[in-house]
Amino acid sequence: MKKFFYKSSVLALMAGIFLTSCDPEIDTPSSSAGELNLTKYVAVGNSLTAGFADGGLYRSGQLNSYPAIMAEQFKLVGGGEFTQPLFTEAQRNGSGYLRLTGFTAAGLPILTPVTSELAVRGMGQDGRTLLYTKFAQPVQNLGVPGIRMENVTTAGYGWNNPLGFNPYFERLLPDAPVPPKSGALTPYVDLVAASNPTFFTMWLGNNDVLGYATSGGQGNITTEANFKTNLDAMMTALLKTGVKGMVINIPDVTGIPYFTTKATASLRQMAAAANAKLYITTGTGTVREATNDDFVLLPSTVGTPEQVGTMTIPHGFSPFNALANSEVLDKDEAAKVKLATQQFNQALAAKASANVGLVDMNAFFNSVQMKEGKPQLSINAVAYSPAFITGNLFSLDGVHLTPRGYAIVANKIIDDINKKFNSRIPKADETKFRTVQFPVN
Amino acid sequence: MKSKILALLGSALLSGTAMAGGYQVNLASQRQIGMGHTGTGLLTGTSSIFFNPGAMSFMDSRGAVTIGGSGIISKIAYSAPESGAITARTDNPTGTPFQVYAVYGINEKLKAGLGVYTPFGSTVQWGNEWSGRYALNQLKLQAIYIQPTVSYAITDKLGVGIGLNYVVGNVNLQRSVPVQSQDGTEGGIELDGSTESAWGFNAGVYFQATEKLSIGVNYRSKVDLRVENGDVMFSNIPAAARGNFPDGTSFNAELPMPSTLSLGLGFKPSERLTLAADVSYVGWDAYEKLRFDFSQNVGGSSFSEAGRNYENTFIYRIGAEYMVADGLALRGGAYLDKTPVQDGYLTPETPDADSRGLSVGLGYNVSDNISLDASFLYINKKERTDASNLSGGIAGTYKSIAYIPGIGLNFKF
């Protein structure tokens, strides 16, 4: 009997030791920065880099920019602080942005501008550009919404002057125009050179084709020669001794919701169902029937009933009420966009070297396009696609990403960094970042 | 009335976490757990109802009753692919599989028995904050087997037996839905249902080859559990998306409890020592997919389906019992349970891997009529990394361990 109690108490003791000390542990490979020095990360780019979303730049978008997400991950392997030109909490809505406030009876989203808590400090000297609250200290997120590769060497691009300027660059510069290397006349490339990164990412060039595309072919595309010259200047500014970085190329802009949501194929079917055809005005001013190679833009009012003479006709469903040139990126215009994107991406790819890796974001965004109506990307049991609102990747402007989309982009870049520089930077948990949010009621 | 009682049972007695291969829970007898859960080729007393009805006819008393239960304390750790920074851990409630057996000798050769036990089940709780929450927050699965059994000794060396399984169960599955409101909340879906009654059988043959050597063969049939008109409940779905997640939806689903064929040997080199070895072949290939059919479209689809494609597996067991003194037995055992989950199919419901079990046990006769068994089983599953790209699961690395103390009481007359 004694023996029995002795044995069972030993057993209980053993059990107790097991229970407290033997939680399952997973030996994950240790994180490391590999060949990289991440003490000063600088992100160079445009609105995507700035964290622009829902048609505006605002604080929560900035906090969820892909460079901010990456910098957090860099901290796990010795990365330093990362300063962004954040709008203050009191001015958290920055430039203002679009919010989803409901759906129409037809199921179309109702987007309402947010107009309170803005960071607008006045009107620029050109009488049309709003000025935003300045951010005086040096920043590492140099994402400037609207900037093109074409603009990076332009002195005065951020100078409040009567001929026009970029207000997002203006807010990073001092008021006084001189001295030229640090004043308001400073070209973007000089600000980049002065940032002295140990590691950089550069995602520039989207706007060199996007501006043309979103205007339905009314803007201009940067020339290949100009793009290359300015790219050279950027690389010289960035690549000081020992600096490493990643160059990110340009996705096919016609694959984003701004161009695909009002899909021409389905609009033509709608027209056919109404015994009509879809007509567009091309870049040359010709009115013709639409083909599936033309892209109707997201803001187009296609299908809205309009008075034409004595009749009411859905907009676009008659040669007398064709879609305007600005509502359509026609086939020829789209071909120009494709060609320029290819040329720019070739120029960007040519910059890859021992110290510079290339992120093929073009291939990545092509890979997430739906096939036969089915999403091709699934991460952690969530499907992602470029579908407007439901695809989880793109924000309400149809061009920029959701925080979730930016996190997925950050993880894609981290993947490529790890391959290029033998680092083991842990990826971010993309599920912690929001997608499009719906009104509660 | 019946289903109400069973629902109550389910809430009080959660069956174990997926702590054997797949969602099988091999904890059928406290004595046998101590011996590595061998027993097909042994006279195991009342628990022969489970291990081998053919051996039941040789039980040496006129009648006996056994009641026992275990507490499964299980933990699963998760780490995301290529990221030591994204981790999760289950917070599983203690599982309580139980067993009740009663055997009565109608005459010398014919015995009748009734067993109630829980050979399948799983409660896995990851919560609604981890990175895999859109695949699973929580899964609770339970099956209770009720088995009337008869056993007949054809000769004094050969016995046969068969039991009929009446099986009831319930399932509850909770997931997060990737739809967010402007207040930051995320949607949720919960599927809850009791299974329709299902039937199966458990048959065995026992042969006492020599004084020292015994052999047994046992087959437990597959049982398909079916939920019809289970409840689908949604939470925190924003108004605009509610049309996609309609209230009043019900679901149908099916889950197979696989067949198990076992061959066991018993060997008594001396009066005091019993050795046992079992090999089981589990027909997991019955589990091809997990499919829910909805009465109304959910998220735009009338069903949700994910591949499982389990493969048949073997379990190898060894065990020993040594009578230290009259009325006091010491036991030990070990087993290797190969995983039925193929590469690409790992899921957070059953993040399964080859599992190693080590057990110890004690038996003590309190009196001529009453004896106690205590067991302790430690299960350690191999760390496993999987892309989970074929199952709609969550890619990453999983590691599971479990501590399972148990106690049983036997009464014979």
UniProtKB/TrEMBL annotation, chain A:
Coiled coil: none annotated. Residues 1-22 form the signal peptide. PROSITE patterns: PROKAR_LIPOPROTEIN. Keywords: Signal. Pfam families: Lipase_GDSL. InterPro entries: Ester_Hydrolysis_Enzymes, GDSL, SGNH_hydro_sf. It comes from the Bacteria. PANTHER family: SGNH HYDROLASE-TYPE ESTERASE DOMAIN-CONTAINING PROTEIN, THIOESTERASE 1/PROTEASE 1/LYSOPHOSPHOLIPASE L1. This is G-D-S-L family lipolytic protein.
UniProtKB/TrEMBL annotation, chain B:
It is a multi-pass membrane protein. The keyword Lyase does not apply. SUPFAM superfamilies: Porins. InterPro entries: OMPP1/FadL/TodX. It holds the Pfam family Toluene_X. Keywords: Cell outer membrane, Membrane, Signal, Transmembrane, Transmembrane beta strand. It is found in: Cell outer membrane. Residues 1-20 form the signal peptide. It comes from the Bacteria. PANTHER family: OUTER MEMBRANE PROTEIN NMB0088-RELATED. Belongs to the OmpP1/FadL family. This is Outer membrane protein transport protein. It comes from Pontibacter aquaedesilientis. The lineage of its organism: Bacteria, Pseudomonadati, Bacteroidota, Cytophagia, Cytophagales.
